[in-house]
Amino acid sequence: MIYEEYEELYKLQQKKNEEYLTIFERDLMKSGLAQKTIKKHLNNVYFYINTFLLKEEPLDMEDGCGYKIDDFLGDFFIRKCMWSTPGSIKTTASSIKKFYKSMNEHGYISNDEYKNLCDIIKNNMEIWQLDCDTFNNYY
To answer: Which residues are CB-contacts of 74 (< 8 A; sequence separation ≥ 6)?
Structure first.
């Protein structure tokens, strides 16, 4: 892919992601969460879908439901984010799960895709947190 193609796809996906984030924000506001909590969830999800999923090739939001969540929370987030802690992995995963639940409820992803995401998070959370703790204490 040449740079111009990448740039065009990047901008297109980023615009779609803004629409998804607007839907997510509305859902969070309807749930009665505090504005500070809503902002935290939005920032966590924004980083995942607009930084991580778009960094190498512009991936659709839907691509974040599969193995990419493991690449993100189990590797990229630990090594590249100076604020990564076992606790921040858990809160970021929570934000991402809430986002994809919203996307599922609005028909943007299937029940199977959402379940797959939740299973990956559940099955790997302890490993990600241990890896993060090890990385933070030894590197």
So the answer is: 124, 127, 128, 131
The overall pTM is greater than 0.70: yes
What domain range is 100 assigned to?
A: 3-138
Helices (H) and strands (E) in the chain, counts: 7, 0
- What per-residue confidence (pLDDT) applies to 57? 83
Token duo for residue 21 = 């984030």
Burial label, 61 (beta-carbon count in 10 A; 0-12, 13-18, 19+): buried
How far, in Å, CA of 110 to CA of 32, rounded?
Answer: 25
Q: What are phi and psi of 108, to 5 degrees?
A: -85, -25
**Using an 8 Å Cβ cutoff, are 97 and 118 in contact?**
yes
pLDDT at 3: 82
Please give the Cα distance from 52 to 48 (Å, whole number).
5
Q: What is the pLDDT of residues 20-47, one digit of tens each?
A: 999 999 999 999 999 999 999 999 999 9
CA distance 10 to 101: 24
Six token digits for residue 122: 């559940």
- Provide the number of structural domains found in the chain: 1
Which residue has 């297109």 as its token pair?
12
